[in-house]
Amino acid sequence: MDWGDWLSNSQNILFVVIALLMVAAAVRVVTSPNVVHAALMLVLALGGSAALFLMLGAEFVAWALVLVYIGAVIVLFLFGIMITRAPTGRDPVRLDHERRWPAALVALATFATLASASVAAFEDEAIEGGVSSTGDLGDVLFSRFVIPFEAVSFVLLAALIGGIVLARKDPG
Amino acid sequence: MTRYFHDYITVAVFAGVGILLVGVALGMSAMLRPKNPSATKRQTYECGIDPVGTGFSQTHVRYYIFALLFLIFDVEAVFIFPWAIQLESLGAFALVEMVIFLVILLAGLVYAIRKGVLRWES
Hints:
The structure holds two protein chains of two kinds.
Chain A: H1 3-8, H2 10-31, H3 35-55, H4 59-84, H5 100-122, H6 134-141, H7 146-167
Helix pairs in contact in A: 2-3, 3-4
Chain B: H1 2-32, H2 62-90, H3 92-115
Helix pairs in contact in B: 2-3
């Protein structure tokens, strides 16, 4: 592969920019001394992955990521942080850990495994018959995957009740 | 596929122009206005009660349950989008399926209300 050719494609340049932004944000997530800043950097990293999904034409996945992860999961994180560890302004607990290098090694090994597995499985062949547009997704969701779809509502119900039971202390 | 990218380029251009517009308006006023900062001006609210403590403060634990409920119903909303787009072609079957889906989740909301987690007691 010729790098000059590769970079002459505007999509590839956009990919490099987004990927570098995501890597920088992800590094800040683990190195930031302030846990709130770490959560906000996670927003940036997730936004970058949503942008990558958009570039792949997976519109629905991208916006679901923005809605659910950036819109709700990070909010839950921030509330969790603000409830538990914010009494004194600056973060009182050190976010570092003495086993950071083994952890970094495990993270790197996980990345290498995932990357080599997906390259070995797909290389650069295009996936045929993939469902990407929101409309197509609606079609398969209500034909082939109706039962899983209804099962999802039970999973969500269980998560909702479980969350309430765990988060709330019952009187008596 | 080309149309898809064209649509998003339109969105990107509009977003860029919007950012530029705000940037130019604020930048111009920053260049034109006189600048003499004081401690009072840097406060969050120039008038009213002085803020106490820092912005980084503890919130009430009750907000957590609201965020949790919001997360669940956000995931539910994500499933409604593909349904809403294809509803006309899918017809009554999809409508019934979605009603079942919503009723099951509504049971969770009823549970939350009956448990009293949505009541704000101090």
